[in-house]
Design goal:
- This protein has helices at residues 12-28, 45-55, 71-87, 89-92, 104-115, 135-146, 155-163, 177-185, 192-196, 214-217, 220-234, 245-253, 271-280, 289-298, 313-316, 327-340, 355-367, and strands at 3-9, 32-38, 62-63, 94-100, 120-125, 149-152, 171-173, 207-210, 239-242, 263-266, 283-286, 302-304, 320-322.
- With 368 residues, the chain is of the alpha/beta class.
- It has a seven-stranded parallel β-sheet, sandwiched between helices. Strands 10-9-8-11-12-13 form a six-stranded parallel β-sheet, sandwiched between helices.
Length: 368
């Protein structure tokens, strides 16, 4: 009988990371049986269905249906429900728990598994922003300390882990599974024109915006500054802004006129629609770590609206520029990008679409 491996997801970015691993395990780890656990940390039934369908992910074997909540409450609830899974038949014979990324579900399930003596595997280990005001940074550091196998996306991640006392033999540089998904589905992406036409944007010149980090959207002064900058940029280049419901509520709280008419707010998009928009954009403005990576892989200029990044390779080798949240700096960087084409990066090492295969091979050797 195949040995059971629990794969944990909790939010939409996790789906893009876990999808290629599920497929690679089925081909390259025949003696392992993956069991997909969705914590429900971020749950939108319509969006989840679209992501499962577009990414060809099997429906989760288990859904904990935790939902949203304060960090402590959400983390505690995931731990409680995941512990119950490991008590039940479907979790009793697990050989390892695989967690991805840096969300609350990642640290919660890693902690439960570690306390039970189950090996923890962390995909996307070793990334550091060196900003402990970010909840994700705490999740990253603690998950890595609990992990038995650590898969990294860039070489600098190993240096971070070794500096924090992680044994070198536990670290495996495998590349970026997010890019596995991007390369697999690039040709299937929805043409940008299909999203732009209903918005009244003609032609191919547009920019793409995402904002979701609490440091940007929860402080009214910071959010107002960012929105003013976006409105000014949009006067020269229409901007498409797929907006999370929480971010939308913060924008609405600022009142009418918070955004110019050329910033087009749309509901959250499916993966293929978002990929198509990103690939054809003149410019992307974001505070998302994953989008920094995807724009680097696509060769699209990216301005990161944060003071730091946990993905330095996107700046050192890719197309990403850290501009912070100062309005003048954002406008200058956008103007320079539109005039001169922005950073011209290259594809980082091992971002080649085979990262999940490397992961599956290691897991087969260890647990098969």
């Amino acid at each position: 009988m195949p040995n059971k491996i629990l794969l944990v997801v909790g939010a939409r970015p996790n789906f893009m990371k876990i999808a290629p691993i599920v497929r690679a395990l089925s081909i390259h780890a025949p003696s392992l049986a993956p069991l997909l656990v969705h914590t429900g940390q971020h749950y939108d039934e319509a969006m989840n269905d679209r992501f499962f369908q577009q990414l060809r992910i099997p429906r989760p074997d288990i859904n904990l249906e935790v939902g949203s909540g304060a960090h402590a409450v959400q983390t505690a609830e995931v731990m409680k429900r995941f512990d119950e899974v490991l008590d039940r038949e479907e979790g009793r014979d697990a050989r390892a728990v695989v967690v991805v990324g840096d969300i609350n579900s990642t640290i919660a399930c890693a902690l439960v598994a570690s306390k039970r003596g189950l090996p923890v595997v962390h995909v996307e280990a070793g990334l550091r922003s060196n900003d402990r005001n970010m909840p994700e940074e705490i999740n990253r550091i603690l998950t890595d300390q609990l992990s038995d196998i650590l898969f990294t996306t860039e070489r600098s991640a190993r240096d971070n882990l070794v500096r924090e006392g992680i044994a070198d033999e536990r670290i495996h540089f495998v590349g970026n599974v997010m890019i596995d998904t991007l390369l697999e589905f690039r040709k299937l992406a929805t043409p940008a024109a299909e999203v732009l036409a209903p918005l009244g944007i003609a032609g191919s010149a547009y920019g793409l915006v995402t904002l979701h980090r609490p440091s940007n959207v929860d402080d009214p002064a910071v959010l107002r500054r960012l929105l003013d900058s976006l409105s000014e940029i949009a006067a020269s280049l229409p901007l498409v802004f797929p907006v999370h419901p929480r971010t939308r509520s913060r924008i609405e709280a600022l009142g009418a006129g918070a955004l110019g008419a050329d910033v087009k707010l749309v509901s959250p998009l499916g993966y293929l629609e978002m990929l198509g928009l990103m690939a054809e954009a003149r410019l992307v403005l974001t505070d998302s770590g994953g989008i920094q990576e995807e724009t680097t892989a696509l060769g699209v200029p990216c301005l990161t609206l944060r003071e730091n990044t946990e993905r330095p390779i996107t700046v050192e080798q890719g197309t990403n520029t850290i501009v912070g949240t100062d309005g003048d700096a954002i406008r200058r960087a956008a103007s320079d990008t539109l005039a001169n084409g922005g950073r011209r990066g290259r594809i980082p090492e091992l971002w080649d679409g085979q990262s999940a295969v490397r992961i599956a091979t290691v897991l087969q050797q260890r647990f098969g």
